[in-house]
Amino acid sequence: MSEHYDFVVLGGGHNGLLTTAYLAKAGFRVCCLEANDEFGGGTRSGEVCAPGYISDLGGMIHSMIARTPIVREDELGLIEKYGLEYVSTKSLFCSIFPDNTALVMDPDMDKACENIAQFSEKDAETYRKFNKYMSEMMSVAHVGAQAPPPPYGTMMNVMYQSPEGREFQRVLNSSAQQIVEEWFESEEVRVTFTRWCTEMMIDPREIGTASLLYFTSNIHNPDLYCINGKVNHEYPGAPFPKGGSKSFIDALCCCCKDEGADLFLNAEASALYVENGEAKRVRILDGRIFEADQGVVSCINIKQVYAMLGDAAPEDEARAVARLKHADFGALNQSFALKKIPEFKAGPEVLEAFCIEAAPYEKEYLQTFSNYPLGEFSPRLPLITIPSLLDETRCPEGHSVVNIYQYAPYRLWGDPQNWVTHKEELERQVWDFFKGMTTNITDDDVVGHWSLTPLEYEQWDHAMVCGDIGQIGLQPSQMYDMRPFAGKGHEYHGAIDNLYFLGCCSHPGAGIAASARAGVQKLLEDYGVDFREVVKKK
């Protein structure tokens, strides 16, 4: 016996749930199939370290989605109707160097320049010009962020018509390291900016990484940080949900259900059936069949979908999918429930930043990224977040929840199975390095601990093939209209017309960026529905 829906959505991460919510809001009968026993995908949180201590298990920073109408205008009612609440740090990121000096990117321009002047007065003067420069790039970089991107050739031609567009083309074909070397003399300043760009999970010397430098302009632009239409001038840093990312997911689930959608857990798709060139039904592992009368929408890894299609997959597309690259490295993610709040040798001001990033000096820093493809590991680049500083719901008063996110190769010393035997040893190295950055943390302060290696990420969420938290890499050849198929990214589907790809594998890509929102607009257009009218409904 099978169940009939207009649309069957694969994957219950935030993109799958957003897709489900918008389609249901548009009047379609929709179901969402999630393989795991909870929704959220890479945007989950829970009491994994110890009871009463809430940790984020994947995505933490909501800076990107906070710029979308989902948050800025609360177009799904997640804030007003379903109780989602955001808090925010003062600044987005800072770097701590081996000598325990720190560069905090303060939202106040004068203060940011004062901080930069510690390392170079010339760079402090340059930074004002650089910020203006990247703000101009920003206006171009956001093409297609909240709407389907234009065809790549068209986009390049349009860009070429303005000086800003031509310069962005150059930036798009440059590395982050190349651009910062053009502007700054201090290695501490250069490392700070390229360190942020490594969130693409790509070596900062690779072509295309420079495009993330435009985010630096956001630091001093509070208008970009709106909550339900209100500018958040007080804390323009890094917004994140009170109670953990699960609060965001819970609000989305409530929205989906209120709009009439059906949500299924432990419903891993095992087969996708195509008839007459159309995706018609999905079978899950327990044998249940879900008929898709209008279409199937994938928010899981496109490689998983083409594996399910088998011989039904168009041959040229199957080859293209097989060639898709993953990120250059993954992550060893640890969370600690602690009896006290860390105090850093670098000073209390680093606690104003959401991302506290350890940064070796440039030579060691760049060599570390060269070593990742060789399977080498270093504990010296942890990204530290302490959301409990601003969110009292995360842990008991006076205690803290600390996430330590360390880049790491999937194929550790050439084989991902090495993570099985060396996990504890490498976790300890990262923990010891973190303790060395503080003045007050000892082993006795640990209440509980949780972790995931790159290998375990793949097991934790099957969409994270090869431990790639973004499903597929963010290389320039896999961005804009070339994601996931070159020249067809703006259509959000391949040769199978009613099989859509709206998650991380589509533009604008990974992160808590609400990628699906842009794709839903194209999908609804294909079915004669005006997205603008859908979001007007309250």
Question: Strand portion, in percent?
Answer: 15-25%
CATH class placement of the largest domain = Alpha Beta
CATH architectural designation of the largest domain:
3-Layer(bba) Sandwich
Q: With helices defined by DSSP (H or I, 4 residues minimum), what is the helix count?
A: 16
Polypeptide structure, described:
It is a single chain. The chain has helices at residues 14-25, 69-72, 109-117, 121-141, 152-159, 163-172, 176-183, 187-197, 245-258, 302-309, 315-323, 362-371, 418-437, 454-460, 515-526, 531-536, and strands spanning 2-10, 30-33, 45-50, 53-56, 86-88, 91-96, 102-104, 226-227, 230-231, 239-241, 262-264, 269-275, 278-284, 289-298, 330-338, 353-358, 382-385, 400-408, 446-452, 499-501. The chain is α/β, with parallel strands linked by helices and 538 residues long. The protein has three domains: 2-45 and 59-85 and 241-324 and 470-536, FAD/NAD(P)-binding domain, CATH 3.50.50; 113-226, no CATH class; 330-460. A hairpin with a 2-residue loop joins strand 3 and strand 4 (53-56). It starts with a strand and ends with a helix. The mean pLDDT is 91. One of its GO terms (molecular function) is oxidoreductase activity. Residues 16-519 form the Amine oxidase domain. This is Pyridine nucleotide-disulfide oxidoreductase domain-containing protein 2. Pfam families: Amino_oxidase.
